[in-house]
């Protein structure tokens, strides 16, 4: 079954969450190939975009397989946000998503991201201006509220709908909670019950079982996965397949996982050059190696990855180590 955000049709399987500094084009493309039905780019500063900053432009590029795909903008000034949205249309996004959930001081401290949950009037103005500026659907991603005393996700979702948002994504934590403890799925259900536009549920989906549970417990139109996909893009294949016909695919072998890591890093080298790509690949390699035999020692080596051949050697050693341990058993 599919859902529709404005005119954009999306398969009802699992989307990859926007993850600044992590879910770059290379990672998103691997997730798409493995079944992510929708991806959103890393949050991008509306001010940076209007100043035509080169780094900002790199963040906005969507690959040819990333459709339907979204670009995410943050900021606190309605007209700058509208202008940035207009400019970002050059990158051909299917959807413009507005970040109203980021807890980071550099975003929320300047009135953007989750700080907008404390100022719904301004948030509404931003949604209206951005919606007016672009021909594609505009969506909003936000949290449960600012803190435990100001939980306002339901009213905020209604405000977003009335201001022209074509869908909302709700992460079931307050700004104060950052990324722990457990996300509150009850508030996700309350948001779903309160609005007519599609609702995307987010927070703590990291397995087929939790994906199915979130759909069942909240009734959301789509689930969105962030940290659960790190080092594990095959989760999208497992979820899509389970939702299609109930088949529970086994976890990927180490060789498969290393194949995804290499694929992702090769793409990153193509897009960013070897120096930047390998620096960023260090954290990804550590995630991909989680749970592997001898992982602690292998992960210790990820910190010094500099070239693609360093990575190839590390992968070779990981595979050999696993073979050795299997033959000893
Ligand atoms: C390192 C990191 C970067 C993130 N960057 C963004 C971002 O750019 N935009 C955004 O809306 N949310 C961002 N988030 C929040 C995630 O999209 C998601 O809402 C959150 O991680 C909860 O989902 P999860 O439990 O599946 O990880 C980020 C989260 C993390 C951990």
Number of domains: 2
Query: What's the CATH class of the largest domain, please?
Result: Alpha Beta
In the predicted model, the low-confidence regions spanning at least 5 consecutive residues are: none
Strand sequence of the main sheet, in spatial order? 3-4-6-7-8-9-10-11
Largest sheet: 8 strands, parallel, barrel
- Sequence of secondary-structure elements: EEEHEEHHEHEHHEHEHEHEHHHHH
In short:
By secondary structure, this protein is an alpha/beta fold. It contains 14 helices and 11 strands. The site of flavin mononucleotide has 23 residues, from loops.
Essential attributes:
8-stranded parallel barrel; 329 residues; two-stranded antiparallel ribbon; alpha/beta; TIM Barrel
Q: Can you give a write-up of this model?
A:
This protein has 329 residues and is α/β, with parallel strands linked by helices. It has 2 domains: 2-245, Aldolase class I (TIM Barrel), CATH 3.20.20; 254-328, Orthogonal Bundle (Non-ribosomal Peptide Synthetase Peptidyl Carrier Protein, Chain A). The strands form 2 sheets. An 8-stranded parallel β-barrel has the order 3-4-6-7-8-9-10-11, surrounded by 7 helices. It contains 14 helices and 11 strands. Helix 7 links the parallel strand 8 (138-145) and strand 9. Helix content is 47%, strand content 16%. The protein starts with a strand and ends with a helix. It is globular. The longest helix is centred in the C-terminal third of the chain and has 21 residues, at 308-328. Bound molecules: flavin mononucleotide. Flavin mononucleotide (FMN) binds next to loops.
């Amino acid at each position: 079954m599919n859902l529709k955000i404005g005119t954009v049709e999306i398969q009802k399987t699992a989307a990859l969450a926007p993850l600044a500094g992590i879910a770059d084009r290379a990672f998103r493309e691997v997730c798409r190939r493995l079944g992510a039905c929708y991806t959103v780019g890393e949050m991008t500063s509306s001010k940076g975009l209007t100043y035509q900053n080169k780094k900002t432009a790199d963040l906005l590029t969507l690959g040819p397989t990333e459709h339907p795909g979204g670009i995410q903008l943050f900021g606190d000034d309605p007209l700058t946000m509208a202008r940035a949205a207009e400019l970002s249309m050059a990158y051909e996004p299917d959807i413009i998503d507005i970040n109203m959930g980021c807890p980071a001081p550099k975003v929320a401290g300047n009135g953007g991201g989750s700080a907008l949950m404390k100022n719904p009037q301004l948030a509404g103005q931003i949604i209206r201006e951005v919606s007016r500026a672009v021909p594609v659907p505009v969506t909003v991603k936000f949290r449960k509220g600012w803190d435990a005393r100001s939980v306002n996700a339901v009213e905020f979702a209604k405000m977003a709908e009335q201001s022209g948002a074509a869908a909302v994504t709700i992460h079931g934590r307050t700004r104060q909670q950052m990324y722990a403890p457990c996300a509150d799925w009850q508030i996700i259900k309350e948001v779903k019950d309160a609005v007519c536009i599609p609702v995307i549920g987010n927070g703590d989906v990291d397995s087929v079982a939790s994906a199915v549970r979130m759909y069942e417990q909240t009734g959301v139109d789509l689930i969105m996965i962030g940290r659960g996909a790190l080092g594990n893009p095959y989760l999208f294949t497992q979820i899509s397949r389970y939702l299609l016909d109930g088949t529970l695919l086994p976890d990927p072998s180490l060789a498969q996982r290393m194949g995804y890591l290499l694929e992702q890093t090769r793409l990153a080298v193509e897009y960013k050059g070897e120096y930047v790509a390998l620096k960023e690949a260090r954290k990804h390699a550590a995630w991909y190696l989680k749970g592997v035999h001898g992982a602690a020692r292998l992960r210790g080596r990820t910190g010094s990855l500099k070239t693609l051949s360093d990575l190839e050697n590390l992968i070779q050693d990981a595979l050999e180590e696993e073979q050795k341990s299997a033959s000893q058993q």
